[in-house]
Amino acid sequence: MYLEELIGNVQLENDKFECKSRLNREDVVGWLKSIAGFANALGGEFYIGVEDKTNKLIGFSRTEADNERNYFNNQVNEHLSPRPQMKISFLSYEVKGNERFVIRVNIPESVVKPVILKYKNIPSIFMRRDGFTNGATYEEIIEMSVKSKNTQYDVLASDEKYEADKFHILHEFYSEHNNGKEIAEKALRSMGFYDENGFLANGAVLFQDGYDGRKTQVQCSVFSGFTKGSERIVTINRFQGDLISSIKYMTEFVLQRMNHSVIKQKDGRKNIDAYPQRALFEGIINAVAHRDYFLDGTQIQVDLFRDRLEISSPGGFYRGEKLGKTYDLSGIISKRRNELICSVLVSCNVMEAAGTGFDKIVEDYKDADEKHRPFISSASDHFTLVLPDLTYVDGIEESAIPTIEFAPVPEGTDFDEKVLSFCYYRARKVSEIAAYLGVRDSSYLRKKVLENLVQNGYLEKNKVSRAMYYKTKHESVYVR
């Protein structure tokens, strides 16, 4: 039996059609590149359980088909970014009275390009042409990037229909923050919550009761000391659910575990929370609103340390500069990455339309000293809001040495990690670096270690008076 007997109008392999009898576990890239190539071109259909070239049906039993589909999904989730918007279905047929199944994967042209295949930490970009999948040319990559640069995940249409009774949690949240009022159906429609055909936008799906996808994953942790790498993890909790439940989960996690203190004043006593509740809530709302939902396999991280709270969200500032680290929260102009999600949160009265959430955080910390000032650090793949613990008298010690990760440095040395950690928070003189490493201030240290890190973009150097100072470029490393 052949595929054309099931669906008709089938041609042998062309730009939009490919078959595999089985997914090759030994050569994952061999078939994953076809999925990426279809998504980067004009889309296509990929059949599993059909013999290549002849279209003869090989098929699967029901159990085998489920296993093959799960394997397919797992490999796509792990190796393709952003994940193409695909529709997977089973086609059934009978052979000698036994039911068999073929897997059909419909891959539309990706709105966000290029779709990148990353295997063994090596990224590749493929394009489908003339019935074959090959590496994309430089010109094709540029064209893909230009066409998709303004696309936002949350406003794209999903394949789920709007059903009003599946949004009770959102309605309750809206009512809670709007003096008991109800959100109007007209308001949802005007925001683009669903389209004229009744299909939900991607962002709307994330507000749906019972949503259990990976797009909303959060991880909340408590560490016994000041860093992740060298301290005991007291608690680590993971959660995924609708966006409103995620916001509440993160908020409650911190409120239940943060410190409290009392200070004496002339006219009595004053209770102090480690983190002002308004600042905490604004930080969590900001992380949810500006998260990059195209990035699969990522999560918002809420980390409690002895001296601070860190709220990290996947994706750098949308169409903004890489700030590195800044205390000037009021001066940050962050454009919306997720128009629909932000519009919903604004309508729920938990986010300012004018983007003044950071101003409220600054206001809550206005009486704090220099060691208790909140700040933000931003890199290309994440941004982190740091709120100092107001009950920890010593504040955040800038001299702390973070645990970092970074790509291997060309012609690097065994000193690279220590140097980059030591210079992460403060610019250091060569003599300070040498003392920290326990070595002499030598030409080897200056040329082979420090200059090599400078030339490869890991360190920046500046001369102050006669001394040379070195500081780690935050966009080149990642703090664990």
From TrEMBL:
Q: What InterPro entries does the entry give?
A: RecG_C_sf, Schlafen_AlbA_2_dom, Schlafen_AlbA_2_dom_sf
Superkingdom, natural source: Bacteria
Q: What is the lineage of its organism?
A: Bacteria, Bacillati, Bacillota, Clostridia, Lachnospirales
Residue intervals of the Schlafen AlbA-2 domain: 13-131
UniProt protein name: DNA binding domain-containing protein
Q: Which Gene3D superfamilies match?
A: 3.30.565.60, Schlafen, AAA domain (3.30.950.30)
